[in-house]
Design a protein that fits this description.
The structure holds two protein chains of two kinds.
Chain A: H1 3-26, H2 32-45, H3 50-67, H4 70-75, H5 87-95, H6 99-136, E1 138-139, E2 144-145, H7 146-161, H8 165-186, H9 192-210, E3 219-220, E4 224-228, H10 244-260, H11 266-280, H12 284-314, H13 320-323, H14 341-348, H15 351-387, H16 390-429, H17 434-449
Helix pairs in contact in A: 1-3, 1-15, 2-3, 2-9, 2-16, 3-6, 3-12, 3-15, 5-12, 6-10, 6-12, 6-15, 7-8, 7-17, 8-16, 8-17, 9-16, 9-17, 10-12, 11-12
Chain B: E1 8-11, E2 14-17, H1 18-46, H2 52-74, E3 79-83
Antiparallel strand pairs in B: 1-2
Helix pairs in contact in B: 1-2
The chains are: A mainly alpha, B alpha+beta.
Chain lengths: 452, 84
């Protein structure tokens, strides 16, 4: 494929993914992993060109991460899990009548985070590439490949930093046994159905609670009431939206967290740096506005860095992002003759082509998302809240998961997904980070090997 | 179905109705699997049997997306939007 054709196709795909994921990102209750991973996986399992799927994926990240904060600013309702830490900041802004300013700051910071992350992590990925070969060789006392030590260290670190430390540590071996046990039953090293079951687990758990007699706590008498704040016309010039300090902090922390996300959790970094900024300010409003903007920049940067560094440099999933939403790129798929989309990507395209298409798709997505959100955030939020029923969205993702689980391991794959989904949800609901479960899935054969 | 007759539940901050969810789930799953299982006929029709595995998954996801459009058009969102 020549460069011009690639860029035209990347433009169309990225534009479509930005439009679609702005809508999905604004809908409350849509988890990033559950909405981004199944569709990316469906494209790759269908054998679509990995570079174009990467362009699509970058569009989904940029749009989702910028859009999920819009309902947070306008209605104090998070559009996704990553926007939850921004709700307290939004409430402070609302109390002082600063919701519109907050909205502008969030969207602008999110675009800064994207641009800084791509500028730092993509060149760094190519620079780090030799490290990838080193990580693949068996080494150390257990004879594991180097990357497995990294991922196990990541599991332990995340577990210790988790809200439920003991439960997270206790989850490691039982969950690895569940994964390997199911693979034994299927007679093959199934990945898709187990992976998707983890992503959809928390939603599946809640939906299954509806059919149990024990669901009184979820009952409601009336529809959800959503208060949208008033907004005026917003300038397109990004320089009007952030103070110099906010630009500097957003850029510096986006760069740093983009790199740290290779091993660390995006949510963890968003909470950590956002809270540090907030605590550093004496004035409550100033602290909240600054923290909100910085969190928006970090959200985009962690997703981009957490994907690109492992994808291009290391070649193995080393953190919650690459073992989670970006894992379809590392999975051995029948559509690529048993190779991973990542291997096909690097074989098929030169370094310069990958860089060009990735940078182009990401910057294009960022500018498109910025324009749409700055111009139409209020109208879009109103449209989404009034027209898109949550039932349709939950049902669609469940249907995609069912089809992919069936394709992976037949009827047994569907039942296995329900089992894995419910067990994952039990851990997640009790404070274990979902990133830990993704990383256990990746390291499961090695972890179970320690027991026998 | 009218608002009063439906059993409403709150999931992840969203209010959903039991019957509407079941309806949406049946529509999306039925269309997804219908498209998935019709893949062999479709590849035979276009004479590209080598594309079977790829098309199966794509058609399944496409079926789910069609289901999303049908459900969105026929189900009322359970949100009351008030503007300041």
């Amino acid at each position: 494929m020549d460069i011009a054709t690639l860029l035209i196709q990347a433009t169309l795909l990225t534009a479509f993914s930005v439009l679609l994921y702005i809508i999905i990102g604004m809908i409350p209750g849509t988890d990033e992993t559950a909405t981004i991973a199944p569709i990316t996986l469906a494209f790759l399992a269908a054998g679509f060109d990995p570079l174009l799927v990467l362009a699509w994926f970058m569009g989904t990240i940029v749009a989702f991460k910028a859009a999920d904060a819009v309902p947070t600013a306008l209605a104090a309702i998070p559009g996704g899990v990553m926007a939850v830490p921004q709700v307290p900041d939004a409430l402070v802004a609302r109390k002082h009548g600063y919701s519109e300013i907050l909205l502008r700051k969030g969207i602008t910071a999110s675009i800064i985070g994207t641009i800084v992350a791509i500028a730092i992590t993509l060149p760094l990925s190519f620079y780090l590439a030799p490290l990838g070969e080193l990580l693949k060789n068996p080494t150390g006392p257990l004879g594991w490949p180097g990357w497995v030590y990294l991922i196990v260290a990541g599991i332990l670190l995340l577990a210790v930093m988790s809200k439920a430390k003991v439960l997270a540590l206790l989850a490691i071996f039982p969950f690895a046994m569940l994964v390997q046990g199911l693979r034994g039953l299927y007679g093959q090293s199934a990945f898709v159905s187990i992976f998707l079951a983890i992503t959809i687990g928390p939603i599946l758990y809640e939906l299954l609670t509806l059919i149990s007699p024990n669901n009184h706590h979820l009952r409601r008498q009336d529809y959800a009431r959503i208060k949208l704040v008033k907004t005026g016309k917003i300038s397109l010039n990004p320089l009007h939206h952030l103070t110099r300090v906010e630009v500097m902090l957003s850029s510096a922390l986006a760069g740093l967290s983009g790199i740290l996300a290779t091993f660390m959790s995006p949510v963890g970094l968003t909470v950590l740096f956002g809270d540090l900024i907030k605590e550093s300010q004496k004035d409550e409003l100033k602290g909240s506005l600054m923290a909100y903007a910085v969190r928006d920049a970090i959200k985009n940067a962690t997703y981009i860095g957490g994907t690109l560094i492992p994808l291009i440099a290391l070649g193995v999933p080393t953190g919650p992002m690459s073992a989670g939403p970006a894992h379809p790129f590392f999975a051995e798929l029948a559509s690529f003759g048993g190779a991973t989309p990542r291997e096909v990507l690097l074989q098929r395209y030169s370094t310069s082509t990958i860089m060009l298409v990735t940078v182009y798709a990401t910057i294009f997505a960022a500018l498109l998302a910025y324009f749409i959100l700055i111009k139409y955030s209020k109208q879009l939020t109103r449209f989404v809240f009034k027209k898109v029923p949550a039932e349709a969205l939950y049902a669609t993702f469940l249907a995609i998961v069912l089809v992919l689980a069936y394709n992976d391991a037949g009827i047994a794959g569907i039942f296995g997904s329900i089992l894995v989904g419910l067990i994952s949800a039990t851990f997640v609901r009790n404070g274990v980070s979902i990133g830990i479960l993704f990383m256990i899935l990746v390291a499961a054969p090695y972890l179970v090997g320690l027991l026998f | 179905m009218s608002k009063v007759k439906q059993n409403l539940y709150e999931i992840f901050g969203e209010v959903i109705a039991e019957h509407d969810f079941i309806k949406a789930f049946l529509i999306t799953s039925a269309l997804a699997f219908l498209m998935y299982f019709s893949a062999p006929q479709i590849v035979r029709m276009i004479g590209r049997e080598d594309l079977l595995n790829a098309l199966r998954v794509t058609l399944g996801a496409f079926g789910a997306f069609l289901g999303f459009i049908v459900s969105t058009a026929t189900i009322e969102p359970k949100r009351v939007v008030e503007e300041e």
